[in-house]
Amino acid sequence: MERVAPKVLDRIYNSPLSAYVMSVNRPVSRSGSKEIFVDLVERLSVTFAPTGEVVSARSDGSLVVRNYLIGAPAVGITLSEDAQASDYGSTRASGGITGVLDDFNFHESVHADSFAQDGAIALAPPPGEMIAMNYRTSRLYQLPFHIAAFVDEHSPTKVDIAIQLRTELPHDRHAQNVTVEFPVPKATESVFFEAATGTTEFNQSSCTVTWRAGQLLGGSEHTLRTKVTLSQPCTSSVKKEVGPVNMQFDVPMWNCSHVQIRSVTVEARDAGQAPYRWVRHFTTSTSYLRRLT
């Protein structure tokens, strides 16, 4: 099973946004309880053409279980209808996946006999962390960011680069740890930044601009203008040294595939040992790239 990078899991566990999910069959009490965390982590890989059109987009997802329960009780997890399949044995959308999944696989200890009918799996997770399921999908309903980029030559040795970010998240969601990086021509002598959000940095040795935008709210727009002074005229070959633009970000409690954890149930062994269950959805960028040429 593919592992989720530890630094990604650390960001999830430190995120203040978590959803407490209660069973419809019985109440959950904090008193004397232990905990189980069920996280749906999606890693985005997206490439935009110079025109702004999406060239490729996919999400690699993992259902991560972190178990602090006593006695290894049975745990049931149900995913949203978008993640169900008409043929559990198939691993290709053309064969039988009627939801959004292109392919998927389960941990060997997971029982997924009814996954095709109701999206449910059952397992008795060991103490600690395990990945119960991996999946991949190219059916993404809404990308979190649109990137626009403009390169204008104002004089033979002066180039203006404008990077515009439009956050396509719902207004009650936000992206965090947002960072934008792009190379500038090797002949760059100096840069001047204009940005109302975050901090900027120019690395002279690598000729790379870094914009640490921080936390961005859904529905907001942000622009970085970089004024570059060159030591030589800006020829077409020099201009091609600008870009591509690469973004890094995390989005808690949201994903663009619409795969959702619908419920988490734990086998009742002791009325006084009702567990505390946490469900979290988390999206992070593996590669989010806007080409300029």
The count of helical stretches stands at 3
Give the H and E element order.
HEEEEEHEEEEEEEEEHEEE
Sheet having the most strands: 10 strands, mixed
Low-confidence stretches: 16-33, 86-98
Set down the secondary structure blueprint.
Blueprint: H1 6-13, E1 19-20, E2 35-48, E3 54-67, E4 75-79, E5 103-106, H2 115-118, E6 120-123, E7 128-137, E8 145-155, E9 158-167, E10 174-183, E11 188-195, E12 199-203, E13 208-217, E14 221-230, H3 236-239, E15 245-252, E16 261-266, E17 276-290
Parallel strand pairs: 2-17
Antiparallel strand pairs: 1-17, 2-3, 3-7, 4-6, 4-16, 5-7, 8-9, 9-14, 10-13, 10-15, 11-14, 12-13, 15-17
Descriptive report:
- The chain is mainly β and 293 residues long.
- The chain has helices at 6-13, 115-118, 236-239, and strands spanning 19-20, 35-48, 54-67, 75-79, 103-106, 120-123, 128-137, 145-155, 158-167, 174-183, 188-195, 199-203, 208-217, 221-230, 245-252, 261-266, 276-290.
- Strands 1, 2, 3, 5, 7, 10, 12, 13, 15 and 17 form a ten-stranded mixed sheet that branches. It has a four-stranded antiparallel sheet with strand order 8-9-14-11, with no helix packed on it.
- A hairpin with a 4-residue loop joins strand 12 (199-203) and strand 13.
- It is elongated, with a radius of gyration of 23 Å.
- The two termini are 37 Å apart.
- The relative contact order is 0.26.
Comma- or semicolon-separated keywords:
elongated, 293 residues, mainly beta
What's a quick, concise take on this entry?
5% of the residues lie in helices and 50% in strands. It has 293 residues and is mainly β.
